[in-house]
Amino acid sequence: MQVHDKADSSKCPFDMTSVNASVGIDAKGAGGPSNSLPPLSWAVRLRIAQGTARGLLYIHECCPRKYVHGNIKSSKILLDDDLQPFISGFGLTRLISCTNKSTDFASKKQSSIQTVLSLGIGSDASPPCLSYLAPEARLSRNKLTQKCDVYSFGIVVLELLTGRLPQAGPEKDYKELECYVRKAFREECPLSEIIDPALMHEVHAKKQVLEVFHIALNCTEIVPEMRPRMKTVLENLERVGFH
Asked: Span of the secretion signal (predicted)?
């Protein structure tokens, strides 16, 4: 696995606020002006979800201590020139400590991890965004857990699928994205009313999109114990389109 400094200007966060609510990436390196790119294809969005899950699994299981990222959100997922995802904001010192204590485990995972995790120096200074926080984590004094990371990851995946910000549900009673999507599925709304319009022309991907929606909704279950581990999430994402 390769480690990349968070300050690497060749990587930029993907941004959900581009024109027509389509998922794009916003180039924000070196203090220059933003440069919006065309909407991402379904294949790229699926790859971002899979790569992010792979990086988060590494954080969770790279050593016996079972680390928690604690601040997963779309701005922490950086894309390189090939649109490969990297997770930022975890802390290089923690990874080095973790890797030194679990060399055998790391060597076994090396081939499957590849270059999916980008780590900043030290701990992440930015506070978690409420819209990405698991319900139990919003209560004061509650400790962040790996299941909180799973919830946050699910919100990011819902962003990829809908092109909406996590608090941008269209109805007043369902302002949060997870509630909006869950309500839409419960009421059997047409997929065209839920997904990013930029994906509508990719008819061949409809089944895969539905599979990933269900994975994301499993990740955002209200009860922490009902959420899957990241290992299961990754396995399910990697099976999309292959059965």
From this structure: none
